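so ive been stuck on this for like two days lol. basically i have the seq below and the ligand is pyridoxal-5'-phosphate, smiles is in there too. i just want the complex predicted, nothing fancy, no docking runs or whatever. if the output looks off dont worry ill sanity check it later, just need somthing to start from for the group meeting slides
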Amino acid sequence: MDLQATTIEGRLTEFKSALPEDVTLIAVSKTKPVGDILQAHATGHLDFGENKVQELAAKYEALPQDIRWHMIGHLQSNKVKYIAPFVHLIHSVTGLKLLREINKQAAKHDRVIDCLLQVKIAQEDTKFGLSQQEAFALLSSPDFADMKHIQIVGLMGMATNTDNNDQVRAEFQSLSDLMKELKNQFFANDDHFRVLSMGMTSDFRIAIESGSNMIRVGSAIFGARSYPSG
Ligand SMILES: *Cc1c(COP(=O)(O)O)cnc(C)c1O
């Protein structure tokens, strides 16, 4: 959408009013100052995403406690402890070792942490994620069945950064198909497994057409980032 508004509040409100009702917007605030997040929060928006543990933890400390923080970036096991007390949803689970650590840290805080499995759908080596086979293997593992402090609520994926819309659509569709297969095989009686996190500023429309119900959008709301964010 071509947003007319010039303020963060205006862009966010305009953006959300154009989204289908069942699509949750995560406002990706990485690299942006807390003042920008406060402006977005002033509209009543509560879901924000960050991709670095340190930045996420610092912003959590500095900002209103009703914010739901989403960890959307690559997560190392040894850093889980810094976000375990408060994180709302971890989008980037890429293996059993990481999941075990999330389970362990969540137990310390008497929490059940919601997680998405990040699946690699892009033709890019720089993107992290499980293969489809690895996702099946993880969910079949007896280890997984024993973890009481995590809950897998869906999948996350990032499409290739390309102008080729057909390729982007095919990649999103593959994740949408996998979601249905995993639902049938592992979560047929589990209503929590329903989140399909895919789509960012450049490709959220295609993602929604392909079945996404959670989009992660940064630059369209907060403006272009002025320095690299990993
Ligand atoms: C930065 C980031 C986004 C948002 O990117 P924009 O192009 O600014 O919308 C979404 N998902 C992940 C995992 C990111 O790191």
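The chain has a mean pLDDT of 95. The radius of gyration is 17 Å.
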